[in-house]
Design brief:
The chain has one domain. β5 (112-118) and β6 form a beta hairpin. It has a nine-stranded mixed beta sheet with strand order 4-7-8-9-1-2-3-5-6, covered by helices on one side. It has 173 residues and is mostly beta strands. The protein contains one helix and nine strands, in the order αβββββββββ.
Length: 173
């Protein structure tokens, strides 16, 4: 890879990292700080009422997706650090995952990526140990719906989502 291509990959990866950190109020992921104590209502399906799906770039500059869920509706394509969020970032590692179709399940055993939960307003974010997304519907550049599960230090949260598509014009590859 020449120097220009390396800079392009680093810029895209930095953009994705900046977006995640912005959504998490500048917090660091993976801390076990008591401030991330999870309230009992977070286990209920439908807690995250705002959602969007965004194309992203994998570390190898291939295709990736980011599904961001917020506890409150947010304007399309915007980060809202004041509301609790759950962000799924995933890409194919060895097997081809894309294109996604209705009925597909993507999880921490068949994809690369990460999941973070940010408390909104008060850092830190925390990283999931395992995760899964099952798409009930999926229309690229349209919308997607489905269910999710994420486990954080033995605590599992799950629910459903109905996400709109957000395309910031990012080009990978």
């Amino acid at each position: 890879m020449d120097a220009l291509a390396t800079i392009a990959v680093m810029t895209r990866f930095s953009f994705a990292t900046l977006a995640l950190l912005t959504a998490c109020s500048g917090a660091h992921v993976g801390s076990d700080d008591a401030a991330i104590a999870h309230d009992a209502g977070a286990h209920d399906a439908g807690v995250f009422t705002g959602a969007y799906l965004t194309p992203d770039c994998a570390p190898n500059d291939g295709a990736a997706l980011t599904l961001t869920l917020y506890e409150a509706p947010v304007p399309e394509c915007s980060a809202d650090p004041d509301h609790r969020s759950l962000t799924f970032y995933f890409y194919p590692e060895s097997a081809e995952l894309f294109p996604i179709e209705a009925g597909d399940t993507v999880d921490s055993t068949n994809a690369g990526g990460s999941v973070s939960q940010c408390p909104g307003g008060t850092p830190p974010c925390r990283a999931a140990d395992s995760w899964s997304i099952t798409f009930t519907t999926y229309e690229e550049e349209g919308a997607a719906s489905g269910t999710y599960t994420a486990t954080f230090d033995g605590e599992t949260i799950s629910g459903s989502f109905d996400a709109t598509w957000c395309n910031p014009g990012l080009v990978c590859g």
